[in-house]
Each structure stands twice: as C-alpha cells, then as structure tokens.
Specification:
three-stranded antiparallel beta sheet
Length: 67
C-alpha cells in the first residue's frame, strides 16, 4: 500500500489565561476532527523548543494514496 503524508505546523505560545488555553485546545480538536474526516491519521507529533516558553510543533498525518 502506498501512503501520502501531510505535515501541519503549530506554534504554541505561552498563554496567560485559562480561557485562551481552552480556545486553543478546542480549535486544535476541531482541526484534528476535520482531517480525520478526510481520511488523515495522526502518526507523529513533533515538538522543538525555540525558547524556554515557546515551542514549535508539527503534526504528521498519513492516509492511503488514491491513485
């Protein structure tokens, strides 16, 4: 079976309040559900620190190719 891959970039900034965290969390869940509905499966989540408080994240997805 052949696969196609998608990498989605996330930049997580420090959040000063719980409401901002909850909004960010729910936006991420909504995006994951949309990609899942399109047949994408999350296979890896990579984090890379830029500073002590700022991280860069990439989510790697795959799905069967439809050639």
């Amino acid at each position: 079976m052949a696969w196609e891959y998608k990498i989605v970039y996330f930049c997580t900034e420090p959040l000063d309040n719980e409401a901002g965290y909850e909004t960010s969390l729910h936006d991420g869940v909504r995006m994951l559900n949309e990609l899942g509905a399109q047949g994408w499966e999350l296979v890896q989540f990579l984090g890379h620190p830029l500073t002590e408080e700022l991280w860069k994240h990439h989510a790697v997805f795959k799905r069967p190719r439809s050639d």
